[in-house]
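User: Can you help me understand a structure? I only have the sequence.
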Amino acid sequence: MPTGFIEIIDDACKGCLLCVAACPKFLIHQTKKKINKRGLYPVEFIDPDEQCNACRLCAIVCPDVAIRIYKLRRGAKSATVEAKVQAG
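Assistant: Let's start by predicting it. Here is the structure, written out as C-alpha cells:
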C-alpha cells in the first residue's frame, strides 16, 4: 500500500528540475508533453508502482511552492488522505 503521493501545480512550476534531483525514488520527471500558462514545461510525477513515501524532499527544494504532498493514513482499509502538507 502506498504511503503518499504528490501533486504538481503545473502553472506554478517553472521546470527548474530541483525536485527531480531531490526525489530519492526517481518519481519526478522532466517532460516536454505540456506547457503551462507561463509558457514553461512543468515536471511530472509518475509512480506506477506506488513507491512514494511522502518524504517531502521535493517540496522542500521547490522554490515556487509548486508541489503538494499527501500522506496516507497507515492501516486504513482504503487510501484515505490523512494530511496535506505543503512546504514553503
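Now, to help you interpret it: The chain has one domain: 4-85. The two ends are 28 Å apart (CA to CA). Let me know which part you'd like to focus on.
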